[in-house]
Amino acid sequence: MPDLPVASASLPLSAGVMTEVAQRSLEAARRHGATDAEVEVSAAVGQSVTVRRGEVETVEYNRDKGMGITVYIGKRRGNASTSDLSPEAIDRTAQAACAIARHTAEDDAVGLPDAQRLFRGTPVDLDLYHPWGLDVEEAIAIAKRTEAAALAVDKRITNSEGATVSAFDSDFMLANTLGFCAGYPASKAYVSAAVVAEDASGMQRDYWYTTHRDHARLEDVEGVGRMAGERAVRRLGGRKHATGESAVVFEANVAASLLGHFVSAASGSSLYRRSTFLLDRLGTRVFAPCVTIREEPHQRGEMASSPFDAEGVATAPRVVVEDGELRGWFLSSHSARKLGLETTGNAGGNHNLVLVPGELDLEGILRKMGRGLLVTETMGQGVNPVTGDYSRGASGFWVEGGEIRHPVEEVTIAGNLLDMFAGIRAVGRDVLTRGSRQCGSILVERMTIAGE
C-alpha cells in the first residue's frame, strides 16, 4: 500500500488535530445523551484570481475550518455545526445537536451505517492531493495569459467577462461511535475564460474551462483561452429554427447533464418518496442497448474518487446500467432502509459515473445523425423529476448532411427523459471529464424543437 499524502502545513488544521476534535465531539455527544453520533471535521484553504481586460478584477482568499456533528437519540436525529473548535464550543455544539434530536420526529430508518459496511483500514492513496502553491502574482500572470489567448482569436471578440484561476486544498476527518475514523486531503485546480464576440448580427458569448485535482494535468491555459474565443466567434449569426421534430446531439459538456438527471431520478430520496419517473424500473431496459454506465470510485486522481462515502461506507466499482438495463440505484444507509435495501455507498452522491464511450467522435456522430440540432448549451431548469418531462432553452448549430450549417439560438428542446434515454442512438468517444461524470457526446433520435 503506498504512503498516504500528508496535507500541507498551509491548511488550518493537521490530521492529528482533526482526529482529536472528532473524538472530543463524539465524547461530548455521548455525555449529552446521544446513543450514537457521527462527526466531520474539515479544513480548507483556497485562492481565486479573476482578470478582466488585462486588469485584476478580484482576488479572493479563504481559510476555513469547522466541525459538523449528527447525533442519534434512539430513532431521532439532530445536527449542529461550528467553526469554533475550542473545547467549550465543541461541547455546546454537541449539546445543541442533542437538544434538536429530542424535538424531532422518530424515523425508523435513521442511524449509523451497518458496521460491516464501513471502510476499514487505511485509505489507499488515490492521488487526489496536489497543492498548486501559486502566489497571487503567479495566478494573475496565468489569468492574463488565458484571457489574452481568448482575445487574440479574432478581431470580432470585443469584450471579456474575464479569466479566472483558482486553487483549493482541503482535508477532513470523518468519525463515528462505531469506531470509524478516517479522512484524506484533496486539491482542486481550475482555469476558465469567457469572452464576447460581436458583428452586424449582434453579440454572442461563450466560455471554456479546465479543472483537475492535479494542476499539472490541466489543459494548456492558452488552449483554454483559444477555445473560449473560438466558441464565441462561431456562435455569431445565430438564428432561430423552425418548430418541429428532429434528432439532437448533445455535445459532451452538455450531455453530462443528462447523466445528472438520471442520478437524481435513481437516488434513494426520490425513490422512497415515490417522486421519480424511474419508479419500479430496476431490472428493466431504461436506456438504449448502446448505453452502459459504470461507477468507478477508485480512479486515481479523478474529481469524485473516494475510498468511502459521506457516511464512511466503503465504495466499490459497479455497473449501474448495462446494455440499457437499469442495474442499480444510488442509496445512502437511510434511503436504503426506507426501501428495505442495502446501501450502495452513495451517501453524498455518485462517484465517477462513466458513460462507456462508443466508436464515433463528435464528427462521426454528426454524420450518423445527418440532419438535426447540435446542442452546445442549455438554459433553464425545465425538468420534472416526477414525470421525466424535459424542456430547456438551447443554443447550438443546425446540421445538414452530417455537417454544421449555421448557428442556432433561442430555441427550446423538449421531450421526456424516458423517451430520450431509450432513443439514444450513439455515444461518443469524445469523453469530457469534469466533476463526477465522464461522458462523451450523445445522439438522441428524436426531440421537439420549438423555435419560429
Can you put this structure into words, describing what you see?
The chain has nine helices and 19 strands. A hairpin with a 2-residue loop joins strand 6 (186-199) and strand 7 (202-212). 23% of the residues lie in helices and 36% in strands. The strands form three sheets. Strands 1, 2, 3, 4, 5, 6 and 7 form a seven-stranded antiparallel beta sheet that branches. By secondary structure, the chain is α+β, with helices and mostly antiparallel strands. Helix 1 packs across helix 2 (87-102) and helix 3 runs parallel beside helix 4 (221-234). The protein folds into two domains: 15-234, PmbA/TldD superfamily (PmbA/TldD fold, 2-Layer Sandwich); 238-452, no CATH class. The chain has helices spanning 15-31, 87-102, 136-151, 221-234, 252-265, 268-272, 333-339, 362-369, 417-422, and strands at 36-52, 55-73, 76-82, 157-176, 181-182, 186-199, 202-212, 244-250, 293-295, 318-322, 325-326, 353-355, 372-379, 389-400, 403-416, 424-427, 432-434, 437-439, 442-450.
